[in-house]
Design a protein that fits this description.
The protein is an all-alpha fold. About 65% of the residues lie in helices and about 0% in strands. It folds into three domains: about 90 residues, no CATH class; about 90 residues, no CATH class; about 80 residues, no CATH class. The chain has a two-stranded antiparallel ribbon.
């Protein structure tokens, strides 16, 4: 129903306004020139300019999902070995949101965005984490909003029933739901700030001076895995440890992804290979 901050941001910043092919081409070539000058993804002024140029060279849909990624493409190109990066270029993950926006049909861009969330974010994130954990503790968080018939009705509604923008530019999320609930709930509930089920990822990663992070990702087995450039992986980890990054690089959730990949390999690939031998 358009309640997330990134839906509001898409409206406020007009994120789906598509640049001309000429503009995108100019941005692409300028970013390629900067790529020769500044390769280190630590957030210097020049690299931030390169980030912006890169994002402005993409389609609006790809740019939005790249921005939301724990591993934006220009960070992946810095980190990945050439063979891995080549696979990414040939099978870009952003082909999926591009196809979802087309599948959504003849609706406005924000409704296409919400359709894409149903195809991916809701099913592979909220239903996996939030719903399972809440159900394990006897809480029901997503029902009745996952009801298929309710979903069919909501998906047909114009965006102003979900994210309403008043003449004075005040934005109200979940507008129709709030209107329906006006007579049922007090104002302190209706206007309460949205609060997700966040977890202190960065605090956990920094526990005991990042001991576990270093123990796994800087281990020779991880460094020689063949997916990532050894020097780049070390830099990624140490830039996080030394607080040299920002939300874009090095992402705490990106580090969790690296940890998960390495631990998965150790548990399922390495053990099976050892058993075969």
């Amino acid at each position: 129903m358009g309640g997330s901050a990134h839906h509001v941001s898409a409206i406020k910043k007009n994120l789906f306004s598509e640049k001309s092919d000429f503009q995108k081409l100019i941005n692409k070539f300028t970013e390629r020139f900067l790529r020769m000058v500044v390769k280190d993804p630590a957030p210097t002024l020049l690299y931030k300019i390169r980030r912006k140029l890169y994002r402005d060279s993409l389609t609006s849909v790809t740019a939005i999902y790249d921005h939301r990624s724990s591993f934006p493409s220009i960070v992946k190109s810095f980190l990945c070995e050439d063979s891995v990066w080549d696979v990414h270029r040939r099978f870009s993950p952003y082909r999926h949101p591009e196809s979802w926006f087309k599948e959504a049909g003849d609706v406005d861009n924000i409704n296409k965005y919400l359709f894409a969330e149903i195809k991916f974010y809701s099913t592979d994130d909220l239903m996996i984490k939030v719903d399972r954990m809440c159900m394990a503790h006897g809480l029901e968080t997503l029902s009745p909003f996952q009801d298929i018939y309710l979903g069919e009705i909501i998906n047909k509604l114009p965006i102003n029933f979900k994210i309403n923008k008043s003449p004075d530019n005040k934005i109200t999320t979940k507008y129709l739901l709030r209107e329906i609930c006006k007579e049922k709930f007090p104002d302190n509930i209706l206007t309460k700030q949205k609060q997700g089920f966040g977890i202190p990822i960065e605090k956990w990663l920094r526990h005991k001076n990042c001991f576990y992070l270093k123990e796994v990702l800087l281990d020779s087995k991880s460094l020689k895995r063949g997916f990532f450039k050894e020097a780049a992986l070390k830099k990624f980890v140490f830039d996080f440890i030394n607080n040299k990054g920002d939300y874009f690089y090095p992402s705490a959730y990106g580090l969790v992804g690296l940890l998960t990949l390495e631990l998965w390999h150790r548990k399922y690939i390495d053990k099976n290979l050892a058993a075969d031998l």
